[in-house]
Specification:
mainly alpha
């Protein structure tokens, strides 16, 4: 009887948790990390023209802000593990709103602009992916890979919508109005989170066996850091996000330099978003059925072909193909980080472990754009930037194979290992 009830629950797991997934999807997409990278391309030249800032200086705001957000991530993970995610997520979304309002008031001093991104990073840190992925990993078991993929598709929708949204507003009303328009997006996510994001209550419904998050098993943060798998995952994440985050926010400037109109360049970047969503859902489905590192190694090395395409003055269709290949890797990366953290280290200290691993995301996402732009400024073209990205894709994609088989933890049920 109990087994039938458990099976019935697992079959309905995704359907019963759709409200949580929806709130998490918007939170991921319009939180402190989700749409920064996709929006900045529309502001690079307008800010440069008005204040005589270089592209690398404008892109440096992402490095500065995301770097601060990365430093805050382990503390956010600690607070989530101890106090739950709802309040932290709501405050974080309000912080992102405030930061973009401040960005709209930027003056001629570059540090005024950087201060706005510091506010987004620090006050908005509670809306980073660790908050949303912890809630999903705790709520879902049988379909955890697909549930995480669905929640993290928010970044894909942001990649589709935000470039066009930002280019349209900036082109018609100026960059200050553009930042104010962006500030509305975290408010939308805040409204959905108010109604649908109740991680403690959802975790209590995880199974008819009355599983409690306090019963979660797995490694402590110290134990995880002693494992070679932790460092393999961290290095792979760092390399991949350096490469992906170098290409994506520079894609509009790269393509406009090659003769594309801003609208055409934005549509190419939107193809990245569509690919990200499709890849994320497909990979989520595969992760529930096959060995994750093998899937990851294939998907994360594909963007090498995208770099080769973009290095050779592509036409519109070729640029779409390249953007799609990068989107497939980006669709895998955050999903894989959330999934592998749960599978290799359990849920006992998920927030703290994920938060520390997220430093790789933050460093990569922060320094990728400015490094890519700096190499272009120094060499006069984006050729060296793409060559550097190819090396990073190869190293980051193949190193993930070193993770090995999934571990098993102590506390088990008839249906598997709790917390894995």
């Amino acid at each position: 009887m109990h087994e039938r009830r458990q099976q019935r629950y697992e079959d309905r797991e995704l359907w019963d948790g759709w409200r949580l997934i929806l709130a998490c999807s918007f939170g991921v997409g319009f939180g402190s990390v989700g749409f920064n990278t996709y929006a900045i391309g529309a502001f690079v030249d307008p800010l440069g023209n008005e204040f005589s800032w270089s592209r690398a200086q404008v892109q440096g705001a992402i490095a500065f802000g995301v770097g601060l957000g990365g430093l805050a991530a382990p503390f956010v993970g600690l607070f989530i593990d101890r106090y739950g995610g709802r309040r932290i997520a709501l405050l974080g979304l309000l912080g992102v709103f405030v930061g973009y309002v401040i960005a709209a008031t930027t003056g001629p001093t570059l540090w005024n602009f950087y201060a706005a991104y510091a506010v987004i990073a620090i006050l908005g840190s509670g809306s980073a992916p660790v908050t949303w992925s912890r809630a999903v990993a705790e709520r879902f078991f049988k379909h955890r890979g697909l549930a995480l993929a669905l929640a993290l598709t928010g970044t894909g929708f942001a990649a589709i919508i935000v470039p066009h949204y930002a280019v349209f507003v900036v082109g018609n009303h100026g960059w200050r109005a553009g930042f104010l328009a962006l500030s509305l997006l975290p408010l939308l996510a805040f409204g959905l989170a108010m109604f649908f994001f109740h991680p403690s209550k959802d975790a209590a419904q995880q199974s008819p066996s009355s599983f409690k998050s306090s019963d979660a098993v797995g490694a402590t943060l110290r134990e995880a850091m002693k494992s070679y798998r932790f460092w393999v995952l961290l290095v792979s994440i760092l390399f991949m996000f350096l490469a992906i985050s170098g290409i994506v926010p520079n894609l509009i400037p790269v393509l406009t330099d090659q003769g594309f109109t801003p609208a055409q360049a934005a549509s190419v970047q939107s193809a990245y978003g569509v690919s990200l969503i499709v890849a994320r859902l497909g990979i989520g489905w595969l992760l529930d059925r096959f060995w994750g590192p093998g899937i990851a190694a294939v998907v994360l090395t594909i963007p090498i072909l995208a770099c080769l395409i973009l290095m050779n003055d592509p036409g519109y269709v070729s640029a779409i193909v390249a953007s799609t290949l990068v989107g497939a890797a980006a669709g895998a990366e955050l999903d894989l980080l959330a999934y592998f953290t749960a599978r290799y280290f359990g849920l006992r200290s998920y927030g703290r472990i994920y938060g520390l691993l997220y430093l790789g995301v933050a460093i990569g996402a922060g320094f990728g754009p400015v490094t890519f732009a700096y190499l272009a400024d120094q060499t006069g073209s984006y050729l060296a930037s793409f060559q550097f990205s190819m090396i990073l894709f190869a190293l980051g994609g193949l190193s993930i194979l070193l993770l090995g088989r999934y571990p098993r933890f102590e506390k088990e049920t008839a249906h598997g290992v709790i917390g894995v």
